[in-house]
Specification:
The structure holds two protein chains of two kinds.
Chain A (H helix, E strand, L loop, with lengths): L37 H9 L3 H10 L8 H16 L6 H6 L3 H16 L5 H26 L5
Chain B lengths: L2 E4 L7 E4 L5 E5 L5 E7 L2 E8 L6 E7 L4 E6 L4 E7 L2 E7 L7 E6 L5 E6 L4 E7 L4 E7 L7 E6 L5 E6 L4 E5 L24 E5 L7 E6 L5 E6 L3 E6 L5 E6 L5 E8 L2 E6 L5 E5 L5 E6 L13 H11 L17 E10 L2 E9 L3 E6 H12 L1
Antiparallel strand pairs in B: 1-28, 2-3, 3-4, 4-5, 6-7, 7-8, 8-9, 10-11, 11-12, 12-13, 14-15, 15-16, 16-17, 18-19, 19-20, 20-21, 22-23, 23-24, 24-25, 26-27, 27-28
Classes of the chains: A mainly alpha, B mainly beta.
Subcellular location (chain A): Cytoplasm, Cytoskeleton
Keywords (chain A): Cytoplasm, Cytoskeleton
Protein name (chain A): Actin-related protein 2/3 complex subunit 5
Amino acid sequence: MSKNTGSCKFRKVDVDQFDEDKYQDELTEEQAEQGPNVSEVTNLLSSGKNTDALTHLLNNPPMVTKNITMKDKATQLAVKVLSSFRSSEIDQAIQLLDFKQIDMLMKYIYYGFECQTEGSSAMLLTWHEKVFAVGGLGSIVRVLTDRKRV
Amino acid sequence: MTEVHNFGTEAVTCHAWNKNRNELALSSNSTEVKVYKKTGGCWQEYETMTEHGQRVTSIDWAPNSNRIVTCGSDRNAYVWNYNDGKWTPILVILRINRSATVVKWSPKENKFAVGSGARLISVCYFEEENNWWVSKHIKKPIRSTVTCLDWHPNNAMLACGSTDFKTRIFSGFVKDVEAKPSGAPWWDGKMSFGTLLAEYSNGGGGWVHDVSFSPSGDKLAWVGHNSSISVVNAATGQQMAVLKTNFLPFVSCTWLNESSILGVGYDCCPLLFSYSDQGQLIFTCNLDVPKEQSIGTQSAMQRFRDLDRMAAISDDTKNVKTLHQNTITQVIVYSGTKEDCSKFSTSGVDGNLIIWDFKSLEKSVAGLRI
């Protein structure tokens, strides 16, 4: 009889690694994607073009890359961009976005919750409420189901 | 008129109708399949099929040959024949090592397909000389559990959706039991069994929950767990339309005519979508228009019962506004065909089975929009 050791190491053994039919994530053509350009976004922010900074951010997400630090940087940048909006400007900014950008914004909001900084959560909740009003439950479901995270 | 039939408090996981729609087979999230007959407006249970050892996952009733096929998590499928007032089962050896998830008769009813968690589809047909259902496997390149299936009207092509986020079309042509089908889109001459004819992804994640061929067989629609609905049109060069909706995900879908698709699922109401000849897929309307309920006086008994059950007094928290009180698990065309559906039926986790009058609903909703 085997002894119950309480060990849970075996749970981390990847039993599927020798399975040749194992599921693999799709690789898309845009392998060389850079994610958002930090200096450009900061420039846009400092010259007061908040909406342009937001659009740049949403159009260049680091989706395909497996580089976690790059993704974290993008999220931090997103939090910075979102917090530079005044709450009265949010509605206007959201109106300019198409449904793809809305989905992307929802993703940034959720990953923003994950790596929170002082006061960021309250600001993100304001954004969340307004994006939810446009994107509905569908946009939240897509944050949860998408294999490619930002 | 919309009819609501209740079958207890357990979820109705799957249901199937006979040809005349006066008999019904359903499973209430258990190992049993119950068969009902309609007698004077209510459903009378007349047989319980108890052959399955684990949960029944799918039922299909062949309208013309009057046979039922069921499959379950016990990795088995049974074909049920009605002889001398009794349903008698025949075991079908599927040769799978994971749960069977879905079963569908082909349009000509000479074979059926079973999807499974073993990452394959078993296509089964009857071999006369051995008096035996034989199964053939379609394996490649399915990478995950097969969740849904649909046969093309030409009886040879098979669409499947899977938890690897892809929708695929295979050849399910078995030369032992049928003649060569006539040409159809996707069908490029190579028709040997198991050939992959097409593979689609709508980008991004989301398990595919259901697939459906349009009545003509030119279009394929599918719904996924990312709340999306997609249509591919073979007549216009495989053009794909994807609509990422604002709703909760859809679990089941069907065409109601050549340009309308119905999606049902976690939103508890049937939602209608339309696909135009230009390849535009748009949301049309919600077919479950809630009636304004007047909040009447509440009896003391009701009030305390609500307080006890829900820890709330207010009446509006008691019920979901929709007719189904929980997720819808399946939608089937009830009267008419996919080409021109007049009624459809939905089963739900709330234990209800609802028959919706599509024609009159469509009219009333059109009236609302004007």
